[in-house]
Amino acid sequence: MHLVKKIEIIANAFELSRILDGLDKSGVHGHAVIRNVAGKGLRGTAEDLDMTMLDNVYIIAFCMPEYVKPVVENIKPLLNKFGGTCYISDVMEIRSIKCVASL
């Protein structure tokens, strides 16, 4: 077990490739993307036609703590320009390197 950072980004799907490029440039090469995310934020729910035509995505990635600063430097300008939010938190990673399953 060791400490890693969890990066969670909710943004417009239109910006997905730019955000993933930003993560990659920061040294964070693995991620998961969940599409068609709905919810309620500080601005309320997205009910108007423009917002419902543009789906949101949820991006989750994990990295070592030293990669957080480059992530913020690369992602923050995108979120400031196009909207979205990013959360970074401490989590513990449990990595199994010994497979015990039998075939």
Automatic annotation (TrEMBL):
Gene3D superfamilies (alphabetical)? 3.30.70.120
Instruction: Cite the GO molecular-function annotations of the record.
Output: enzyme regulator activity
Superkingdom field: Bacteria
**GO biological process: one example:** regulation of nitrogen utilization
Q: Which InterPro entries match?
A: N-reg_PII, N-reg_PII-like_a/b, N-reg_PII/ATP_PRibTrfase_C
Q: One Pfam family this chain carries?
A: P-II
Q: Which SUPFAM superfamilies match?
A: GlnB-like
Q: What is this protein called?
A: P-II family nitrogen regulator
UniProt source species? Halotia branconii CENA392
